[in-house]
Amino acid sequence: MLNTFNISNRRYLGNKYKLLDWIKDVVNQNCKNIDSFFDVFSGTGSVASAFIDKRLVVCDMMRSNYLAALCWFSPGSLDRQSLSEMLEYYNNFDASKEDNYMSQNFSNTYFDHLTCQKIGYIRDHVLSQYEDGHITEREYASIITSLFYAMDRISHTCGHYDSFIRDGKYEGTLELRMPENDYPVNENNRIFCEDSNLIAGTEEVDVAYLDPPYNSRQYCDAYHLLENIALWNKPEVYGLAKKMDRTQMKSKYCKSIQAAEALSDLVSKLRCRYILFSYNNTGKKLQCRSNAKLTDEEIIDILSTRGDVQVFSMNYRGFDAGKSEMNKDNKERLFLCNVHR
Predict the structure, then answer these.
(1) Model-level pTM?
(2) CB 3.0-4.6 Å disulfide test: which of 18, 139, 223, 326 passes with 135?
(3) Are 228 and 100 in a shared domain?
(4) Closest Cα partner for 206 from 52, 74, 339?
(5) How many domains does the chain have?
């Protein structure tokens, strides 16, 4: 009998899982007749999951998050018996006989040699199964998402892949589990892997939820290994952390001189009745790269070009990979714009 996992069973920078009740309350009390919800920077998809009973539009520019969104929200077909058999096969497979891209490049970094062999085998095999038509797109995405969650459970890191712990003490066995995605989804859900600014005007929705990066820490740096596996182009990697070229993955929202301009462009394109903008003030940091790139004044000025703005706030310290830079003035804010222009 396979163990299971759900969308919340993952550590991820900026994850709003613990804030879902608050976010839903703000929407339920201030937004009327909501039938559709656009998670514009979806990340793990936790906020979209809170509105699973709506028509969802989900977007993230990282392929790893896109595949996870297909797993959780796609209306595509999924045979759970077939999926279970494949996950069991991978769990029982002895991958120690052959090296592959993963074991040749990542052994004894984030994982030991045997685990890297298994990750590489699974990724090669599931791609061939999908390309040969033996599994559907959602089944393919579900297996890779299961692999990501399995890796996160045993990775020798502080919670992301910007670096690894160099003590050689690897623990745990890679165990693929069954995703708890056996629930009804709207047949008109749409999933995008794209720059959010490029698709902002392509979908008409009731609520557009914006949760862009807050600071200089690029997600493609923190999760480069998962992105490498998601894309599976087998690029050359370099440096101690074994990172690939991520030039085309950088977000404008992580740069002070571009963040406000990017947000203004995005907000002007959205076709919705409400814009809900989530932003953490990050407190005062010891490292300037951790400081927020947008001021409250900039956010309110930009949102006000589309309508009236209310601000809701609560004290909150999110996942920060074990660092202790945040201080007591750290707050999560929701800026709600009632769009009328």
Answers:
(1) 0.93
(2) 139
(3) yes
(4) 339
(5) 2
